[in-house]
Amino acid sequence: MQVKEILLQKPDGQDIVAKGWVRTKRGQANIVFININDGSTISNIQAVVEDGVISEDILKKITTGACIAVTGKLVASAGAGQSVEIIASEIEVYGIADETFPMQPKKHSLEFLREKAHLRFRTNTFGAIFRIRHALAFAVHKYYNDNGFFYLHTPIITASDAEGAGEMFRVSTFEANKAPLAEDGSIDYTQDFFGRETSLTVSGQLEGELGALALSKIYTFGPTFRAENSNTTRHLAEFWMIEPEVAFYELEDNMNLAEDFVKYVIKYALENCADDLAFLEKRLLEEEKSKPQNDRSELSLLDKLKFVVENDFERITYTEAVEILIRSKPAQKKQFQYEVAWGIDLQSEHERYLVEKHFKKPVILTNYPKDIKAFYMKQDDDNGAAPGPTVRAMDVLFPGIGEIIGGSQREDNYEKLLKRVEEVGIDPENIWWYLETRKFGSAPHSGFGLGFERLVLFVTGMGNIRDVIPFPRAPKTAEF
Amino acid sequence: MQVKEILLQKPDGQDIVAKGWVRTKRGQANIVFININDGSTISNIQAVVEDGVISEDILKKITTGACIAVTGKLVASAGAGQSVEIIASEIEVYGIADETFPMQPKKHSLEFLREKAHLRFRTNTFGAIFRIRHALAFAVHKYYNDNGFFYLHTPIITASDAEGAGEMFRVSTFEANKAPLAEDGSIDYTQDFFGRETSLTVSGQLEGELGALALSKIYTFGPTFRAENSNTTRHLAEFWMIEPEVAFYELEDNMNLAEDFVKYVIKYALENCADDLAFLEKRLLEEEKSKPQNDRSELSLLDKLKFVVENDFERITYTEAVEILIRSKPAQKKQFQYEVAWGIDLQSEHERYLVEKHFKKPVILTNYPKDIKAFYMKQDDDNGAAPGPTVRAMDVLFPGIGEIIGGSQREDNYEKLLKRVEEVGIDPENIWWYLETRKFGSAPHSGFGLGFERLVLFVTGMGNIRDVIPFPRAPKTAEF
C-alpha cells in the first residue's frame, strides 16, 4: 500500500507494510521515530521503533535517503503533525544512503538541486512540482477528450519549418563533417536517412490543421524545440506544447476555448493537488519574506490561481492596447524602455503593465498588425479600426508569466495564403500539402499553442522554467 | 453541433446547422441527397435538398470533398441507413473541391493514401483509425492516473544511449560539414549547442527509473527514435512509447501490471469505439475474402480483441519455451528457418508458433539468458532451472504482432550493475546519475515499454504500421 493510501486508513492496529525513503530519523531515550516518504504524497508516514524491537545493526543503516520497508501495526498517532503512525515490528533495508547522499535534511538551493536532477524528485518541493505537473497533464487530456477532441501525434522530425523562423536543431545520421557532397558541391541530403534535410519540429500546428480539416477537433501535446541561444528563466531548448486546432472556429470561438481550457486545468489542479499547492504556497511566502515589501506579490499562490479561475479575461484589440499604453503613466513619464507606437511588437514591460497594473487580470490581445505575426494567420478585412492591416491573432497574457498562449484564426483562402507564403520567403513546394487543404474543402478554422512549462510555472509559482521540467535542455545543458 | 451529436438528437423538426465535408451527392428527379461527415464519427448526416430550395449555382459547387454548412430542420429519416436527416433550407459553401480532389468516392489503395496523408483523415478507414488511436491514448493516461502513476516527461534530446544500441539520430546546430575541430583533430562538441554530442532518445527508461526511485510509480508516453534502416511493415524511425516504471515491483508484479494495463486499454476501445471497430472489422473481412482460405484469420477483429481481454496470458520461462519449441512439430520436421537452442534470441517464427499455434493466446516469456538482454536487467540467482545465467526479463507476445511489450525487473545492486555496464562497454561516467540511484536508497523496481503503434496496429487490425501514425517517419520518408 502506498503512503498516500496508508494515511487514509482508519487505524485500529491492523498489520501494514510501508515502503519508501527515509526523510528523517529522530532518536529519543528508548524510542526512534522514522519519517518515510514514497513520493505518492507530500506527507510522510511515521514509523515508531520501540526499544529493542529492531537490531542496532539495522537501525544504524537507517539514515536519511535510505530505502526501507517497515512492517508493523497502524495506530492513531499521539504526536502532532500526523493522524496515524506505524508501530514497527520489522524493518527491511533495501538500499542504504551513506553520508555522501546529497539530499541531507537541510535547505538546498534550487541551483544545487538542478545539478542533482536525478535525486531532486525526492525533495518536498520537487515532489510537489512533479505531482502537479502530472495532474495538469492529465487535466489537459481529460479536457480535450471530454470535449470531443482527438489527440493527434504530429511528427517530431520534420522537413518543414512551421514558423518560418530558422532556429532549429538539425537531425541527421551523417557522421560529423563527413556528409557526402552532390556534384555541385552542396551537401547531398538524398543520401541522409530521410533522403532530405530534416530538423526537430518547432510546432505541430501545420500538421494539426490537416487533422482538424478532417476530424474537426484535434489537439497535440508533444515536445517542441528551439535552438535559440537564450539562457533565461523562461526559455528551454526542449519543451512540451499543447496545440488544439478546430474546424469551423473563428477568432471569438478560439478565445472562448482558450479561456475555458486554461481555467479548467487550473481548477483541476486546485481540486486535485490541494496538499502540494498548500506546501508550495507556504514555500513561496517564506521566500517572499526575504524580498523588500514592494516586490512581494499582492496575492498568495492559491489566491492567484483562484483569481484566474473566477474572473473573466479582459479582451481587447492590439490597437486598443496601444492606445492604453500611449496614455499610460509610464509612457507619459518615459519610463518604458521601448517606446510604444502602433506596429511595434509589444515588449514584456508593456504586457506586464497591461496585465499587472492596468487590468490586474489575464488579458487576451487580438487583431495584431499583420507584419509582426506568422504567415498563416487570417487577414482581417480592412474596417478602418486600425491604422494598418491586421490579422486575427490572439495572445493570452498572464501575470508574472507574460504570453502563455498564442493563437489565431488561420488563413483559409488559398490565394491570400499563397501570397503570404511567398512574401515571407517560404518555398510553396515545401508545404504543398498545407496549401492543398485550402484548395480542397477549405474551412474557417482556428487554434492556439500553450507552452506547458509556462503553465506549470504559473500554477506552482516557481521562478525558473528549469525547475518545472524533469531534465531541462538548454544551451550547454543536456545532462541526465 | 457536431455530426456525432446531431445523430443523437430526437428529431422533431428543430432548426439545426451541420458543418462538414461532402462525402457523396446523389440527385434524383426534384431531390438531392448530400452526405456530410465532420470526422466526429464514422457516420454521415444526410441533407435533403428539395426542388428549388437551393440555387443551381450553389448546388453545382457541392461535390465530393467540398466543405459546407447546411441549415435546416431535423426530421426522422424515411430512407434506410440513417435515423435522422436534415431538410435543407440554406447551404453555405466554405470551400469547394474540384475534380482534382484525390479522395473521390471509390476504393483507394493504402499505398496511394499514404502519399496523401494530409487528406487521408477524410476517409472512413483513417477516420476510424485515428479516432481509435485517440481513445487508446486517452485510455493509457486514464489507466495510469487512476492507478496512482505520475506522467513523467523524460528528455527527447539525450547525451546517453539507454539501450547501448547505437542506431541513433544525431542532433546538432553545427552547419553540415562545418563542425569546428579540437586541437587533436576531433570534432569539438564543446562548441555545439549543448556543449556535447547529443542524439534523439531511444527510450525514456533510464530517466524513468530516476523518477520511480522517488515518486514510486511513474510512466512515460512520448516519442522515441531508431535510425535503423528497416523498411518493413513493423518499423518506424519515430514512434511513441509508453514506459511505466515502479519502485518495489518485482517481476511478478510487473507481469500483472502489463497484463492488466493492456487488457484495460483494449477493453476501453471496445467500449468507446464500437462504431469504428465494427467498420474496421467489416473492412478486414472484405480484405480477407481475397486471401486463400488457409491464410484467413480464425477470429474476426472484435472476437480477437475480446479474446485477449477475457483470457489469462500464458506465462512461461524462456527455458520452458525453448523446450516446447525443440519438441514442436516444426522443429522435428526442420521447418523453422532458425534452429532452436537455449541461448538464441527467439525469432519471429518461434514466437508466432508459441502464440498462434501452441498456446493460441498472448504469452509472457520470462527469465531470458543474460547475454541476449540489456545491461540493466536484474540477474537471477542461479537456481539450476536454466542451463545458463538468466535475467528477470519479460516479453509479452501478441498474435499477429509479436513482441508488444518488453520489460524487466531492474538490477538494483550497485556492484552488479556497474560490472554489467563495464562488460557491455558503456562508460560509467556517462550514466553516473543512473548508477548513483543504486548507491543512495536503492530499491527493487521494474518496468516495461509498450510500442504504442504496435498496440494501435493490433486493435485496428491494420497490416502496416505506417497506417496507424498520422505522418510516418521511415527511411527516405519525412513528407508532411
Automatic annotation (TrEMBL), chains A, B:
<keyword id="KW-0067">ATP-binding</keyword>
<dbReference type="InterPro" id="IPR004364">
    <property type="entry name" value="Aa-tRNA-synt_II"/>
</dbReference>
<dbReference type="GO" id="GO:0004816">
    <property type="term" value="F:asparagine-tRNA ligase activity"/>
</dbReference>
<dbReference type="InterPro" id="IPR006195">
    <property type="entry name" value="aa-tRNA-synth_II"/>
</dbReference>
<keyword id="KW-0436">Ligase</keyword>
<dbReference type="Pfam" id="PF00152">
    <property type="entry name" value="tRNA-synt_2"/>
</dbReference>
<dbReference type="InterPro" id="IPR004365">
    <property type="entry name" value="NA-bd_OB_tRNA"/>
</dbReference>
<keyword id="KW-0030">Aminoacyl-tRNA synthetase</keyword>
<dbReference type="Pfam" id="PF01336">
    <property type="entry name" value="tRNA_anti-codon"/>
</dbReference>
<dbReference type="InterPro" id="IPR002312">
    <property type="entry name" value="Asp/Asn-tRNA-synth_IIb"/>
</dbReference>
<protein>
    <recommendedName>
        <fullName>Asparagine--tRNA ligase</fullName>
        <ecNumber>6.1.1.22</ecNumber>
    </recommendedName>
</protein>
<keyword id="KW-0963">Cytoplasm</keyword>
<dbReference type="InterPro" id="IPR012340">
    <property type="entry name" value="NA-bd_OB-fold"/>
</dbReference>
<keyword id="KW-0648">Protein biosynthesis</keyword>
<comment type="subunit">
    <text>Homodimer.</text>
</comment>
<feature type="domain" description="Aminoacyl-transfer RNA synthetases class-II family profile">
    <location>
        <begin position="130"/>
        <end position="470"/>
    </location>
</feature>
<comment type="similarity">
    <text>Belongs to the class-II aminoacyl-tRNA synthetase family.</text>
</comment>
<dbReference type="InterPro" id="IPR004522">
    <property type="entry name" value="Asn-tRNA-ligase"/>
</dbReference>
<dbReference type="InterPro" id="IPR045864">
    <property type="entry name" value="aa-tRNA-synth_II/BPL/LPL"/>
</dbReference>
<keyword id="KW-0547">Nucleotide-binding</keyword>
